[in-house]
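fold-stage: in
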Amino acid sequence: MLYKWLLPLVLLLTFGVANANMQKVTGDIVFIIDESGSMAGDISAVKANAKAIFNYLKGQGDFKVGVVSFGGYGQNPRVVCPLTDNATEFEKCIDSITAGGGYQPGFDAVVLATNKSSVGLRGVASCMVLITDEDADKGVYTKTDAVNALNSVPAYFIGIFDPNFGSAQNDYGVPNGLAGLASAGGVQINLADFRADYNGTLKIILMNCTQAIQNVTTQCNDGIDNDGDGLIDYPNDPGCLSPQDNDEKDQTIAASEFPQFAVALVGLLGGIAVLARKRMR
């Protein structure tokens, strides 16, 4: 009766692998890039760093990366690339950025970067990396709006900027700018250091983003039964796909999300069961 023990095996493999996948670190990273004309000397390095971060994260967990730009001609700010884990798609997006323009509503760009429907945020802990050479020009949104937007995600903020330009330090830095006011935390990096050592800055971004995403307080690691089902946090609440998930509500897993080999085994099980029944007749 081979088919009698195949069903438990299939279930074990299916849910065992699914659980292993869910234990990976999950996070979204959005680059907020100033594409105004004054960034012409930095834009190539910004693109290269974004690509390097994307390629590194592919093997580190369930990460997706997106890009928002501001300061350019036309729509300002704009979503250059919604969150993706497709390398070809991401490189095509990032390569489309060119320096030109001159008005930089940085706070508007941050608010756009935290917009779930526009960027495709998945409701998990996130990291926002803003790169600019100037302060924030007046736009639709204020610094308070930008802080509230970061906190709603929640998102760690990395500001790479010139602290000596206008009000940039107070706009983006520590302690009174976005990096200092974001509830998930933040850090500032001097644009001069970025220009002097692109690779060193890359390491700082990677270290801060990955650690921050793992440490951000979400509904799935806050010790609270947020959805009232009597189960608390990952891995106890089935609504939590990882500790970085910010929604405890139970989710229905589509058949397409099951491992392909498990689907094949289910088919094999059915075939064996049919053969076994024929032999019993």
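fold-stage: in (second)
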Amino acid sequence: MELMIWIRVLVVLIPAAVGMAAAVMLGRVLPRKLWSRLLQGVVAIGISLGLLLGGLNVYVNFGVGPQEDMVRRVATEKKIVALTFDDGPSPTYTPQILDILAEYQVPAAFFAVGAHAERHPDIVRRIAEEGHELGNHTLTHVNVPTTGTLQLAAELALTNFHIYEAAGVYPKYLRPPRGMYDRRLRQWAELMDMQIVLWSLSSQDWLETMTAPRITTRILSRVRPGDILLFHDSGAIVRSEGASRLRTVQALPDIIEGLWARGYEIVSLAELLAYPGVEPDPDVPPVY
């Protein structure tokens, strides 16, 4: 999710800011030849950052090599989608979301942060009791590629433990924070009998600029059959919690009604994944 924003910031704003600052501070001090070399260096750094982060974005969005063990969407012409929520449970927003889902009789999958599940077992229990699915989102919302192997195993195992202790169910699904994964995560997921589930359409509800109407419009204007829709019931851009998810709560009823009006059926993640044609499908990229 965040990668697209960071790419824009780093590739566009940073080189420009550095160039302008350098021009102000050094333009009248350095010899013209040295200034020219410095400017070339700034441009080269900007291009290098763009290539590096662009490569990371491709890795997250599309992956590299065979990905039979990961799901982004289901390739089907049937108008079915699944709702998923990351980073909870939140004592403020998750109950409100559950109330809306209950009112509309709509299923969803909640990818819980283990530390949050430990603090709010009653909400985890309610999620399961009301027929929704629970997934693993690591214990502390770690960045998987930079996390040690043993710590990563502990992040996954302890999250499963806290979810099972609270709700009596073992998580069938795993979603790495920010969609960042590596070979070790895939191996641990296989050993722990969990399916890695990413997403194909993000609501971008984590962006401060996204109002409830904009979240609704984004989903309804981009949705495709077989999509796995991404929302958040807790979290923050760089932290595992703390941001307001009120706009997500406000948008959810309109999104549900809008999907129905367009002929879509909202199904559980398990039902969606039961359809043939599970992606990866490189011809149909995810929408961020």
